[in-house]
């Protein structure tokens, strides 16, 4: 005797749960990548303008060194002294040869502070250096 009933299997409809999972994962990915892609524009630096200035094109893995008008150096939201910056740049050059560095100096920053950062880059054998300028208004 067969006690099992032969139930007809109904065709499956559109499954919402996997679709919600995929959309949620995509949302998490894009939010996370947007956070890491932000420019360090929250630091109050007034960039000098240049007639040939244009919106910068970020390089992958680019390190941004901000030099405030007081001469303080800020990297990734941390204020570093010359020893800390030098050791960080040395580690970067050792691990990633050709590491791109962007220097953002306030237009009121003394020239000696910029040269100090450039000297630390040179001592660390970092040669891929660019300077940020503002786009002129008008």
Describe this structure in words.
This protein is an alpha/beta fold and 138 residues long. It has one domain (40-138): Nucleotidyltransferase, domain 5 (2-Layer Sandwich). The protein contains three helices and five strands. The chain has helices at 16-36, 82-95, 111-123; strands spanning 63-67, 73-75, 78-80, 101-105, 129-131. A five-stranded mixed sheet has the order 3-2-1-4-5. Helix 2 runs parallel beside helix 3 (111-123). The model has no long low-confidence stretch (mean pLDDT 81).
Strand content: 5-15%
CATH topology title: Nucleotidyltransferase, domain 5
Assembly state of the chains shown: single chain
**Gross CATH architecture:** 2-Layer Sandwich
- CATH C-level class is Alpha Beta
Calculate the mean pLDDT score and round it.
Answer: 81
Radius of gyration: 26 Å
Which strand order spans the largest sheet, edge to edge or round the barrel? 3-2-1-4-5
Number of helices: 3
Helical percentage: 25-40%
Number of domains: 1
Q: Which descriptor suits the 3D outline?
A: elongated
Structural class: alpha/beta
The major pleated sheet works out as: 5 strands, mixed
Q: How do the helices and strands line up, and which of them pair or pack?
A:
Layout: H1 16-36, E1 63-67, E2 73-75, E3 78-80, H2 82-95, E4 101-105, H3 111-123, E5 129-131
Parallel strand pairs: 1-4, 4-5
Antiparallel strand pairs: 1-2, 2-3
Helix pairs in contact: 2-3
């Amino acid at each position: 005797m067969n006690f099992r009933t032969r139930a007809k299997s109904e065709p499956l409809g559109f499954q919402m749960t996997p679709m919600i999972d995929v959309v949620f994962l995509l949302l998490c990915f894009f939010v996370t990548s947007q956070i890491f892609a932000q420019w360090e524009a929250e630091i109050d630096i007034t960039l000098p303008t240049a007639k040939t200035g244009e919106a910068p094109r970020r390089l992958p893995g680019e390190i941004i060194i901000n030099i405030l008008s007081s001469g303080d150096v800020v990297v990734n939201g941390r204020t570093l002294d010359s020893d800390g910056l030098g050791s960080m740049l040395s580690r970067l050059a050792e691990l990633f040869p050709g590491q791109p560095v962007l220097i953002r100096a306030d237009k009121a920053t003394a020239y000696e502070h910029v040269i100090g950062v450039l000297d630390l880059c040179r001592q660390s054998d970092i040669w891929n250096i660019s300077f940020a300028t503002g786009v002129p208004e008008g």
